[in-house]
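Appendix B. Chain record.
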Amino acid sequence: MSIQPTENEIDVAQWVHSGIEIRVFAEDLDASKSVAAEIATLIRQRTDNGEQCVLGLATGSTPIQVYRELIRLHREEELSWKNVVTFNLDEYFPMQPCAAQSYVRFMNEQLFDHVDIRRENIHIPDGTVSTESVNDYCQRYENLIDAAGGIDLQLLGIGRTGHVGFNEPGSEQASTTRLVRLSEITRTDAAKDFGGLENTPRLAITMGVGTILRSRRIRLLAFGQHKSAIVERSIQGSISNSVPATYLREHRDVTFLLDAAAASKLNHPHSDVSIR
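Structure tokens predicted for this chain:
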């Protein structure tokens, strides 16, 4: 499952640990462009074969540069999204799609409004469903993913609690799309977007760990020193529901793409690693 670097990449290191391919880049932009290039290749391959490409997408600051590069490829290199179907990982609950903090608005502003994707092919968890119907809604979301043929490539970030999507500590490996309670760490990290912790949602709808693990490929991005401790625990700690990201090590095709700061606590198998 090794990926060959493109001519624009500067890798600090590349190795495999506990089933995870680890790629460390000099700059987070290089990592983002690498993922965007892989996504673009996959879209084009599916198009050439007359097939749709199913992507699992993430929100937050981490994937923004990926989306900017994909928009550039659409505008400058004719990357069409007409055969792409997308499923987003999560959404706050409750949440109106027009709200400033909604992931519907985020995805439209950061990607969908700038490419030729068909609107009926976009799926984002609905933060407006009633509490009484949310369980049925989550099952329908799972059914939609299955009906699309499953996710070809799932893009992930990682929270300081080790959450992927909003699968907080305690999430089980087989968990599916559901309503979850957000940890205080996650809410604190999000509070700036809501004007304070008191305004920050306590709940969210998220794809489950099991939903994510059914994806054919998983690519996780993590940047910055503040992510280094959880990256180290996810890759080199014991597999446990206390750090849901550790379950990714059970997947057959998962890559962590890191900058040097996020990778700084990892034990590298070679001591003479340096930037080329």
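Further analysis of this model is presented in Appendix C.
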